Input
Amino acid sequence: MYCAYCGRLSRRCQCHRPNSDLARFMARGGRTPEPLARSSAYKRAVPPQLKRRERQLLRANYADWFERLAAEYGDCCANCGAAENTVLDHIVPIAKGGRSHYDNLQLLCAECNRIKGKLAIDCRCFAHPE
Ligand SMILES: [Zn+2]
Ligand SMILES: [Zn+2]
Output
């Protein structure tokens, strides 16, 4: 089995350690994120031209998607609730085969985004628009 957050084989996964990225990420919000259903490992090597395309797609639609997410889930970090420095985050990172698509995006503050890194964590279930 593969870890739903880091995509590694369960026995190689470090997510359960007390100071893992996942633990630090969750400590900021204090909530247990929704694990993503995975039956296979996340992609290791995504071709550079695919990554470039996904990044361009994100840039081209950034303002639109940001506005839609803010309207649907609230204009704050989906993990910790911080209202400042929110950015669009890929739930499944581009580096793991995630696409730039509305369904794969959430709003995170810069700090949560930094800690999350290449983990796949869906926090949208926590967000509640005012
Ligand atoms: Zn893991
Ligand atoms: Zn945050």
